[in-house]
Every structure is written in structure tokens, then in C-alpha cells.
Amino acid sequence: MTDPHTNTLMTVTQTAGRGLALVFSFIIITVIGFFVLDEANARFGALAISVAIVALTKPAALNARLGKFGWLIDLGLLAAFFYSAIWFFQVKSELYTGFYMATPENITAGIVGMLSLVALSVRSWGWSLVVMAIGFAVFGFAGPYLPAILEHFGMELADFMQIAWYSFDGVFGRITGLVADNVLIFLIFGAVLERTGAGESLIQISTALTARIRGGAAHAAIVASAIFGMMSGSVAANIAGTGVFTIPMIKRQGFSANFAAAVETAASSGGQLTPPIMAAAVFVMADLVGMPFAMVILAAALPALFKYIGLFAQVYAEAVRLDIKALPKDQIPQLTGRDWLNSALVFLPIAALMVAFISGKSPAMAGLVGVVTAIVTGLALNPDFRREPQRILRALADGGISSAQIMLAVGVIGIVMAVVNETGIAIRFATSIASVGESSLIMALILAMFGALILGMGLPTLPAYLIIAIMIAPAIIKAGVLPLAAHMFVLYFAVYSSIVPPIAYGCYVAAPIAGGNPLKTSFVALRISVVGLLVPYVFVFSPSLLLVAGEFSWTELGFTILRLLAAVWMLATALGSADPRLGRLGKGQRVLRLAIGAAAMIPVWFVWAPAVLATLAVGLFSPRLQPQAAT
């Protein structure tokens, strides 16, 4: 039987954590609107508050095996970080002047601070990120004993603490500052938008607009998950939030449990790649490639569009294969004027955010405009939101918790970045892939793809992208790929690691909601995401698809769009085993279409041009097949 005093203490602790998260959101908003903080104070302060929020909202005592000992663990972790804070600010002036000297005292303080950060990040993100950070730290110390390709001079403990903790290249480095300054406000924005009722409104409108299309429920789910996925910053969080509505809706229309879960996972993953927010990765990418945010957003537009065209096509083909019809007219939801008015809950805040961007506001200020607009719109249009103004506080608390969790992840990544910079392993890795790229760029890209998928497994979008950007993006840039295309390439595969077995963490969230099998769901998600998986190769070889990368060519763009459309149709009908005109397809038809679709993706005119012509021929002259009953 649970001790009532323990339950009371747990409730008080978690309430205090949510209260601190609410304060964190207010601090973020206030600083953006009114203050300029010292960079070191801002970075350390954001991480310190984040440590406290995670310790309070996810106390170790929740683990029944730890029991009351969990409280001692949390007190120890908080005390350790507080102790490290004292020493950090004592040596801060030395960090600015470059005269920092390692002493046993400040090394000890750094170690306990780093250990508390790492331990608490496990509660937010599991072991994947921590194991990676530990692996890189071991690599840093073991340098002289490694094989020749990995060998380096190694590090002493004092050197490691200096670069990882007491410098502006590690835990408190530039990326930590960038996330604290520009990204956290968008996590608050997403939380506020969800609380205003925007999600329910979006699902209602999407369902009504797609009900006349075969498989309309799945199409509606794609739209809803895509829009909310671009703001959530986590595939798993978006699936958990929207999947409880969309997955049952897809199943009711006749799709299998695994397919319903796969659609939700694929759409939520794709949302992380959808402009204008792209799960806040757009701001980090713009900084890393040295381009304005608006240019990166523009570059992401067409790849995202074709990714979704491919997903819609796969769903439509599946509906044809299963003989799922559009809803009868008497069952189609009728949108009222009120429904259309409620659509402003979604689109007005996003529009306000984009107007702020275009008018030259900073990303943080544009995000703040979005937050304020979402709150005002919710109060104006949603009576429930007006009657319960405490929803605003809950939304800000939710945003504060999400911000704290992402800050811990970025802090842990700082350890990885410090080791990478000190050992030069990224340069060595880049040189190795570039040497492959000299003889075969496609082989270099395939190696980079597998590296990105492996490094990104189990991680949320932004941490996954950061690690892959420092390890793999330089490699394919050195192989001859344009910087923006290289970063977009690795971002795509960082995101798609959420659907790739054996980890496929997005599928492990979606499958239980649907009552399906996670591994089978991941294979279905891979199949229906095939265009999204191929699009990065297209914009590397045809960078005009990014609109702003390199020497733009309207001719190249036109031909690229033409062959992508052909590939989408051929691949969707081949993999879905059905064609809207012909019904269920035989094996010969499917093999033919798969070959044509693959050829259309190859950026050599004498390969793709016949494939486009063959696509027209298949569509116009194929013998009509009799539709068969679904099995």
C-alpha cells in the first residue's frame, strides 16, 4: 500500500515543478520582450532552471524500486548542480579572458554538475543520448589506444572538463545559447496552440475537407499531424497528442491497425520537416549554414510538399486496394460558419508568426508574436478557453517543461560537441567519406544516410539533428554537396530514424494506440514514406528543388518536378498494389511500375526522360483490370 505522506510529497513536488516551469516560460517571454542578458548567465541560468524542473516533475521516487531513497538522489543531484553553479560563476571572468586554470576544486564542481545534468537527461529522453555522450567521452580519453583511423592524442581529465564544462564550446556553447535564445519560445507556442483547441478544430476541418476522397480519414490525419508535428519538436510527443484522435478515426474507415499507426507515425515524422517551424530545427540550421531563416524555410518548402504528395498517394493506393470508398454524402461532416471561424485558432497564429518573420523580426520575437496571437485568438474564439483562463497557465507550464527537457538534451550534446572539436574526429570522418565521394557521390550519400539513421535513433528531432550535423554534414559537404543541401539531407534522415527498425521509437508509441505490432508498423511506415526517403537524394543532385541553393535553374526545377510526379505515381501504385483507374494490380504491373518509378528518380536525362514517357504510357494504355475484393 502506498504511503499517503509519500503521495502528498510527490504531488507537492510535481506541482512545484510545474510552477517553476510556468515561471521559466514567463522568464523566456519577458527576456525576449524586454531584456538582454549576459550570454553566460543566460545559458547557465536556463540549464540550471531546467535541471530543477526535470528533477521536480520527474522525481526519482516515482520509481517504486528506489522508494524513499529517490528523494535523497534528487536532493543530491540538485545540490551537485548548485555547487557547480557556485564555481562556474566564480571562474566566469576567467572564461571570458581566456586565463582559466583548472584546479581540483573547480574540476570536482564541473564533474558533479555534468553528472547531475546527464542523470536527469535520462528521465527526459531515456538512455540513447546519454550512452552516446558517454561513448564520445570514452573515445576522448582512449585516443592513444585506439586503431590508427581513430587514434588521437587523448585527453586528461582537466582538459576534458575545460572543453566540456568550462568553455563556450561544450555544455554552455553556442548551440546551447542559440536554443535558449530562439527555440524555446516555439515549444511554448506549440503548447499554447494545443490548449486553445486548435487541434480539435484542425481535425474537424481536415476530416470534412477530405471525406470525399477515398481513405479520407487517413488524409485528414496526415494534415493534422503534419501541422502539429512541425511545432512539437518530438515525433513521439506529437503521436501521443494527435494519435489518440487520428488513429481510431483511420481504423474506423477500414484500414488495418498497423497501417493506421504507420500513417500517424509517418505524418508526425514529416511534420518535423515542414516549414515554417520544422520543429525549431530551422533556426539551428540557418545558424550553422550562415543563411537567413526565411531562406532556409523557403528551401524546405518543395521537398516537404513532395514528401506529403507521396504520403497521400500511398494512402490513396491503399484505399483502392482495400476497396475503401469515400464517405457517403449523408455521413460527410458539414462545416458550419463556426467551424471556419475556429480555423483561425490554427492559421492566424501561424500567419502572424510568418508576418513577423517577413517584416524582419528576430526568430524569438516572431515566436513571441505567435504565442500572444494564439492566446488572444483562443480567448476570442473558444468559449471554453475564455471560461477557463487557467488553460493559459497550464499551456505555459507545459511549454516550460518541454523547454527544460530540450535544454538538458542540448546540454548533453554539448559534451559530444566538445569531444568532437577537441579530437578532430569529425574532420577525419569527413575526409573518409569525401574520399569515397571522389569516386562515387551516391556511395558517400548512402554512407551518410546510414550514419544519420544510426546516430539519430531514439533521439528527438533537434538533438538528433545537432549530433548528425556536426558529424556527418561536413563529410558530404567535403564530398561536393552544397552546404544547405547537406544539412537538409542529414535533417531528413535524423527525423526518419524515428520510423527505421529496430529502434523505430515513433512506431513504438503509435502501435499500442492502434493495437498493432511496432515492428510491422515500422515496415509499413517505411513503405509509405518511400518518397520522403528519396527526396533528399533528389535535392542533392538537383539543388534547384531547394529554390535558394547554388545556381538556381528554372529548367532544372521544371524537369525535377516532372520526374518527381512520375515517381510518386509509379512508386505509390507499385508499393500499394493498386491503381485508381485499374484497381488491384498484378505482380507484373507492380514490378514494371517500381522500375519506372526508380528510373524517374535518377538525375540522368536519358534515364528519367524515358521513365516519364513510360509513366504516361502506363497510365494511358494499360489494359483495364477488374477490381478484386479486398483480402
From TrEMBL:
The chain crosses the membrane at residues 20-37, 44-63, 69-89, 96-119, 125-150, 171-193, 277-302, 340-358, 364-383, 395-420, 440-457, 464-485, 491-511, 523-549, 561-579, 591-621. It is found in: Cell inner membrane. GO terms for molecular function: transmembrane transporter activity. Residues 114-549 form the TRAP C4-dicarboxylate transport system permease DctM subunit domain. One of its GO terms (cellular component) is plasma membrane. Coiled coil: none annotated. It holds the Pfam family DctM. Keywords: Cell inner membrane, Cell membrane, Membrane, Transmembrane, Transmembrane helix, Transport. It is a multi-pass membrane protein. The keyword Iron does not apply. The keyword Heme does not apply. InterPro entries: DctM, TRAP_DctM-Dct_fused. Part of the tripartite ATP-independent periplasmic (TRAP) transport system. This is TRAP transporter, 4TM/12TM fusion protein. It comes from Ruegeria marina.
